[in-house]
TrEMBL record:
Signal peptide: none annotated. This is TIR domain-containing protein. PANTHER family: DISEASE RESISTANCE PROTEIN (TIR-NBS CLASS)-RELATED, LEUCINE-RICH REPEAT-CONTAINING PROTEIN. The lineage of its organism: Eukaryota, Viridiplantae, Streptophyta, Embryophyta, Tracheophyta. Gene3D superfamilies: Helical domain of apoptotic protease-activating factors, P-loop containing nucleotide triphosphate hydrolases, Toll/interleukin-1 receptor homology (TIR) domain. InterPro entries: Apaf_helical, Disease_R_plants, NB-ARC, P-loop_NTPase, TIR_dom, Toll_tir_struct_dom_sf. It comes from the Eukaryota. Residues 1-154 form the TIR domain. It holds the Pfam family NB-ARC.
Length: 405
């Protein structure tokens, strides 16, 4: 199983096995670093080497470090090294003192072909900002800082809330993910379109949660159309950029839409990002937030949800380069069995109607047009209510069935 974090010692557990932390604690003295451990390093997204006073005495640690640096350098920014300096100084690690330098001299006799790569790895890692720790100090604040940093970089804790009562979405999610070609280096745009209440936003949230850990940074921008009308496009541009900036100072340099476009391209052109623009209804919103492929780094994916398919076509027409080929996925009505199951979960807290309500439930589902949001709302409203109210609700729905929500 892939592990997002690789530790060079089990000093820190982060208090959560769900992070998939892998360390070399189980490697016995004298045991060679095998394919399994190297594979663990290769499959990890974040490396946390912990440099101690005795670190450089271990050729295994140095070999691991060199492989981490190699993997990170070839990842196009998708893998990161976050070093911890435990009772050592940066000068020790970059070989400006005797602490690590003497250890490498000892290794020179046996591992002469590898020592140069180890030296380079040590110097390269020391250029990265990490955490300094003294054993005489409390580790609580450091652990908290590391936890927050790692959670942010892995997009854990920033998942979108999705109802547990999902029905009939798996096949659609898989189809959309297949269309995204996540392994391709190209930047790709994909539009999810369909009538209101059909489940576009839910699909986008599920896909965002599934894929977010595969990208360097992510942002899900909700209610783009409404937010644009209430707060303006510049506000949306700043909201988009806020997840990708460590400081707000750059946001303060955005005074109009053109400034925002230039800043988006400047900040994101080398980043591997996953962005969802939810409920877009005008081409100007897309032009201002995701106008061209070259605004984004390799392997970036931009997902757009909209009720109006023509918005996706207009995006291609409105730009100078290549967006006319934007992929599109239409969300159709649910299958009847799935719709009845979803309605039943909200009306009866089970997967099928009570026997005395089967006929009424089927008629209501047919009348609602199998729109997920309408099924959830009406099902919740009727839960625990009298059969008389059910019949009255059905009659009212027949008079004015929802076209969309």
């Amino acid at each position: 199983m892939d592990s997002p974090i690789f530790f060079t010692m089990a000093w820190l557990r982060l208090g959560s096995s769900s992070l998939g932390i892998r360390d070399n604690e189980s490697l016995h003295v004298g045991q060679r670093i095998g394919d399994e451990l190297l594979q663990a390093i290769q499959n990890s997204k974040i490396y946390i080497p912990i440099f101690s006073k005795n670190y450089a005495l271990s050729h295994w640690c140095l070999r691991e470090l060199a492989y981490m640096v190699e993997c990170a350098s070839k990842s196009n920014g998708n893998k990161e090294i976050l070093p911890i300096f435990l009772d050592v100084e940066p000068d020790d690690v970059k070989l400006k003192t005797n602490l690590y330098s003497k250890a490498l001299l000892k290794h020179q006799k046996i591992f002469c072909s590898e020592v140069e790569s180890w030296k380079k790895a040590l110097v390269d890692v020391d250029k990265i900002k990490g955490w300094n720790l003294k054993t005489s100090e409390s580790q609580v604040d450091l652990k908290r800082s590391i936890i927050q940093t790692v959670l942010t970089k892995l997009n854990i804790g920033f998942k979108k809330n999705v109802t547990e009562d999902l029905v009939g979405v798996d096949d659609r999610v898989e189809a959309i993910i297949k269309m995204l070609h996540v392994e391709s280096d190209n930047v790709q745009f994909l539009g999810i379109h369909g009538m209101g209440g059909i489940g576009k936003t839910t699909l986008a949230k599920v896909i965002f949660n599934r894929l977010s850990s595969s990208f360097h940074e992510c942002n899900f921008l909700s209610d783009v159309g409404e937010s644009s009308r209430h707060h303006g496009l510049v506000h949306l541009q700043k909201q988009l950029l806020s997840k990708f900036l460590d400081s707000r100072s750059l946001l303060d340099q955005i005074y109009d839409v053109d400034d925002g476009i230039n800043m988006i391209e400047r900040v994101l052109c080398n980043k591997n990002v996953l962005i969802v623009l939810d409920d877009v209804d005008e081409k100007e919103q897309l032009k201002s937030l995701a106008g061209k492929y070259d605004w984004f780094g390799f392997r970036s994916r931009i997902i757009i949800t909209t009720r109006d398919q023509s918005v996706l076509t207009k995006l291609g027409e409105a730009t100078d380069e290549g967006l006319a080929n934007i992929s599109a996925y239409e969300v159709g009505e649910m299958e009847f069995d799935h719709a009845l199951k979803l309605f039943s979960r909200h009306a009866f807290r089970r997967d099928s109607p009570l026997d005395q309500y089967i006929s009424l439930s089927e008629k209501i589902v047919h009348t609602l047009g199998k729109l997920p949001l309408a099924l959830e709302v009406i099902g919740s409203f009727l839960s625990g209510k009298s059969k008389a109210l059910w019949k009255d609700t059905l009659n009212k729905l027949k008079e004015a069935p929802p076209k969309e929500v």
